Amino acid sequence: MRRMVNTGGKFEIKLFVQESSSPKWIQSFKYEFFPALGWSDSLTSCRKKVKNVSQEIDAYFEQLIEEHISKNHQQDDTRKDFLDLLLQGQKEYNTSRDNIKALLMNIFVGGTDTPAITIEWAMAELIKKPDTMKKAQEEVRRVVGSKPNVQEEEHVHQTEYLRCVLKETLRLHPPISMLLPCVSYTNTKVNGYDIPANTRVHINAHAIQRDPDLWDKAEEFIPERFSTDNIDFRCQDCKFMPFGAGRRTCHGMSFSLPVVELVIANLLFHFDWKLPSDVKELDMGEVPDMNANGRLPLHLVSIICSS
Ligand code: HEM
């Protein structure tokens, strides 16, 4: 969510994720997916651009690390952040500066767009289904009650329907639609297919989570399916895996779930929502990319709830 503008008495919250998502040249980086076409990346100057961006990011991480090293000389233990702890454990775990930069990169890449994309899709699905929006809103407003305060973390465990909304959003729109690639170092057979050693295998969570053999009315947004099925985020039977599975599963899951829920709950608690008057039908198309961004940024009009 990047912008909020006042449109004459009403606030229009523009939910954007597009600005920070991959620029077009990254989408056209062929080598990663089709090594045989790698030569074309040089023609489109893709390699040069990737190198420039890597250098920029590297310089930024260097600066962060240096700042933290000098800051640490003055600071007490209670104020340490993630990078402070990584630096502190550097000797004990024998981590190089490159290891630390790689970990920072993981957190930046894995943890920035994903919650924003989830929130945007949840709001898009809810605006398309006013009854579902109303049900979620009533639950949030009932749980928070008359307290003047906004939805807080303690309320998250009580908003069960909102959790179903979140699960259904992540089923239809997993922000990382293709899970991290797996490589088997020996010849393997999966589902009758021969996978030669050192082949990179991508798991398409997006397709699995919309498979009509696994899901009733697979293309429809029906949060209620999760209130009866009791399916967890942790991919027990490999049909629901928005946070991945196995050793490469998301490290940020337990942190991001309450954060995303709190943001959506606050949006539902404080505002009623509608489409801008010039939008008749919401475009629910996705960009064909590793991240399931919407084709268009979501623009919604919020009306401050006075009750
Ligand atoms: C709604 C929010 C999020 C979703 C849906 C999500 C989803 C995922 C998925 C699908 C993977 C790949 C797992 C696999 O291939 O098996 C992943 C990896 C990862 N996620 Fe998340 N993620 C979210 C938020 C976050 C946050 C907030 C952080 C950090 C603060 C984070 C950190 C990571 C890291 C570090 C990895 C890489 C793990 C590895 O390299 O082995 N994620 N995430």
Describe the structure.
InterPro entries: Cyt_P450, Cyt_P450_E_grp-I, Cyt_P450_sf, Cytochrome_P450_71. This is Cytochrome P450. It is a single-pass membrane protein. The structure is a single chain. The protein has about 300 residues and is an alpha+beta fold. The protein folds into 2 domains: about 1-110, no CATH class; about 115-305, Cytochrome P450 (Cytochrome p450), CATH 1.10.630.10. The chain contains 12 helices and 8 strands. The strands form 3 sheets. A 4-stranded antiparallel beta sheet has the order 1-2-8-7. Strands 3-6 form a two-stranded antiparallel ribbon. Helix 6 crosses helix 9 and helix 7 (about 130-145) crosses helix 12 (about 255-270). The longest helix has 27 residues, at about 45-70. It is globular. Mean pLDDT is about 80; it is low at about 1-30. The structure holds protoporphyrin IX containing FE. The site of protoporphyrin IX containing FE has 24 residues, from helix 5, helix 6 and helix 12.
